[in-house]
Write a structure and sequence with these properties.
Elements (H helix, E strand, L loop, with lengths): L15 H11 L2 E6 L3 E5 L10 E4 L12 E9 L8 E11 L11 E12 L2 E5 L1 H6 L9 H11 L1 H7 L11 E10 L2 E8 L3 E7 L10 H14 L9
Helix pairs in contact: 3-4
């Protein structure tokens, strides 16, 4: 159950296609399901799984030819120990045009069907053109390390950021943890005994590359220090 309340000015958000591309970029594993088998594919070593799959638009008349169905499943899990750690799920549907092999260095050709993004807000369906046009978030490959570093080594700064939360956290909040970070800002999850709510603290301007993140994060800390609001909530 989620607590009511939201920031007075909603932060900018990535598009559904951008969110999918970011999840794929940061993925370390996926589940591959065909007509004949189910395979857990792990250890991408920082490479986008889409590099292993060459996506093609559906061809007219292709239904007349047998092509094994393909389903790729990805789970986006928060790197910090928040409640409800699964942030999103991505499913890519299509049909195999060439055989898939775990050990092959060659990419597998796939007739693309659709990509589905599942979040707490519902389902979103993304087509091939939109997916190919979207770019992954520049922080996606680094987000897990950045969030765990913030929580483990700068615990006090998470509490400091609570000064920027609107509406102000109440005494019912028992824990606040960073749950996400992208080019638009840092998202905190405020937990109480009955549920939680997520609040995004926007950066002064969206990032174009990861090298800009340090200055933008420090700007949030500076704004929090200037705030007169004090709190003693545990992070």
């Amino acid at each position: 159950m989620r607590m009511s309340g939201a920031p007075a000015t909603p932060a900018a958000r990535p598009t559904d296609a951008e969110r999918i591309r970011s999840i794929l970029t940061a993925a370390h594993s996926m589940t591959l399901i065909t007509d004949e088998r189910r395979t857990e594919v792990r250890h991408f070593d920082g490479s986008d799984p889409m590099g292993r799959l060459h996506l093609h638009p559906a061809e007219p008349g292709g239904d007349a030819e047998y092509r094994p169905t393909l389903r790729l499943e990805f789970t986006d899990v928060a790197p910090t120990p928040v409640r409800e750690r699964v942030r999103a799920r991505v499913t890519v549907l299509g049909r195999l045009l060439t055989p898939y092999s775990d050990g092959s260095a060659d990419s597998t050709c796939v007739e693309f069907g659709q990509a589905v993004l599942e979040t707490g807000h519902g389902l979103a369906y993304v087509g091939l053109e939109e997916l190919e046009a979207a770019r992954p978030d520049p922080l996606a490959p680094y987000e897990a390390g950045m969030l765990t570093h913030l929580l483990d080594d700068h615990h006090d700064l998470v509490t400091l950021l609570l000064r920027l939360v609107r509406p102000l956290p109440t005494a019912a909040v028992v824990r606040a943890l960073p749950v996400a970070m992208d080019r638009y800002g840092i998202t905190l999850r405020l937990e109480d005994r009955r549920g939680h709510r997520d609040v995004t603290l926007p950066f002064p301007s969206p990032l174009d590359e990861v090298e800009q993140s340090g200055a933008q994060i420090q700007a949030l800390f500076a704004a929090a220090r200037r705030s007169s609001h004090r709190n003693t909530l545990p992070a």
